[in-house]
DNA sequence: CGATGTGTTGAACGTGGTCAAATGCGGTGG
DNA sequence: CCACCGCATTTGACCACGTTCAACACATCG
């Protein structure tokens, strides 16, 4: 089981999560209604349609939101990183499957008290609005990927997204030789990209053969030339860096 | 030019738009900073990357948000109906092309005063959060469509979406013989669905041949059996009716 | 060891894309 | 009234990309 922090003061997502704008007093109130839950890689947090009596922030690890059709076709519709928010105030049942793809720690708030607090504390709603607008932008970028990009472009885009995230989390600077772990199985990548896992595997091999990426093991990728990768992704250069 | 209403009291979107929760005083303040703009079908409202010094609500008509890649591939990422909100508080440049697909009237607010008012009037931010969360849900539904549905399912889904909207706007009851106009060209449908316009046309013909829909002219569709349509769309039955 | 999970690769197939031509419809002008 | 044009749409023929089905490689774990 991954371990959890205790105090909001120490919290690694303090300044990015839904609580980011809260002052000391507000934080103290939140601290009273919060509790941590941990999940191991592969565990399901909630199933679509289940009653969900909490909302939460991802503290560490990665979770996914997926939708499933009756015949089993699956599409990932959200990739939740540390500080991202799970659940919707005012909604009683989960709309998506939430799954831990790595070991995961979530900071949970019982829904009722959280909603009451939202009414009294504009800072929370303001921050949640900001985060939701960001997610909507990300979803729209994703729609372009799903609707119009080739398999090769989709793979390159995914790697670029992960690389940018690592940079923005301060894990490494842009100038260094870029190297990163893909925290997803080939199947999860396929669910993300609207492909089959075979196509994912083939295109990874193709990008490797063409020197766009270097594979070190199955999950570790080195990017010798980031601009080349962006080009392969079909994105406007620098898209995603300016806001 | 389509004509515009004058008073918030008469406004057809009064109780659904971003101003829905505002009381009389707040509405009076909004009334001072609002102005109407009209566009003819086909006109562009703003181009992606342009400076955008206003935010707005769609009053009547339909607009689209689209993203374009350098080589011209286009993906629609938003379909804006009456009461939907355009623009993002705090953002200076438009992130998407906004186009009027029918004659369009928008209720605009200059961005600066609107942002200031948001700070002082929680009702606006609250409502905007609600609307943004709804849009995010819609975007995720759309992602499933783009990533995993067949061309035939995509077409059936689009028709079902339009039909549901017409019902929810009270234009017709569910029990009646369903009949609706598609307010999009075949090309716009293709941009919406991540298809080519030829495939859209072919699948429309196929659904007609199989009796799922009846075409009366190019843009008017009769749905003899709504459940059959839903089945063709690959959706859970009743998906979208319960919230 | 075999069993299981994860990933790679190959061959055949089919859906949807591409390119091209034809059709239909509304508007404009002779 | 009809000829003509422009545009949206339909239809056809062919092709390619990504899927499907299958075999195989490799690591971890009982």
Automatic annotation (TrEMBL), chains A, B:
<dbReference type="Pfam" id="PF13545">
    <property type="entry name" value="HTH_Crp_2"/>
</dbReference>
<keyword id="KW-0238">DNA-binding</keyword>
<feature type="domain" description="HTH crp-type">
    <location>
        <begin position="149"/>
        <end position="227"/>
    </location>
</feature>
<dbReference type="InterPro" id="IPR018335">
    <property type="entry name" value="Tscrpt_reg_HTH_Crp-type_CS"/>
</dbReference>
<dbReference type="InterPro" id="IPR036390">
    <property type="entry name" value="WH_DNA-bd_sf"/>
</dbReference>
<protein>
    <submittedName>
        <fullName>Transcriptional regulator FnrL</fullName>
    </submittedName>
</protein>
<feature type="domain" description="Cyclic nucleotide-binding">
    <location>
        <begin position="18"/>
        <end position="135"/>
    </location>
</feature>
<dbReference type="InterPro" id="IPR012318">
    <property type="entry name" value="HTH_CRP"/>
</dbReference>
<keyword id="KW-0804">Transcription</keyword>
<dbReference type="Pfam" id="PF00027">
    <property type="entry name" value="cNMP_binding"/>
</dbReference>
<dbReference type="InterPro" id="IPR018490">
    <property type="entry name" value="cNMP-bd_dom_sf"/>
</dbReference>
<dbReference type="InterPro" id="IPR050397">
    <property type="entry name" value="Env_Response_Regulators"/>
</dbReference>
<dbReference type="InterPro" id="IPR000595">
    <property type="entry name" value="cNMP-bd_dom"/>
</dbReference>
<keyword id="KW-0805">Transcription regulation</keyword>
<dbReference type="InterPro" id="IPR014710">
    <property type="entry name" value="RmlC-like_jellyroll"/>
</dbReference>
<dbReference type="InterPro" id="IPR036388">
    <property type="entry name" value="WH-like_DNA-bd_sf"/>
</dbReference>
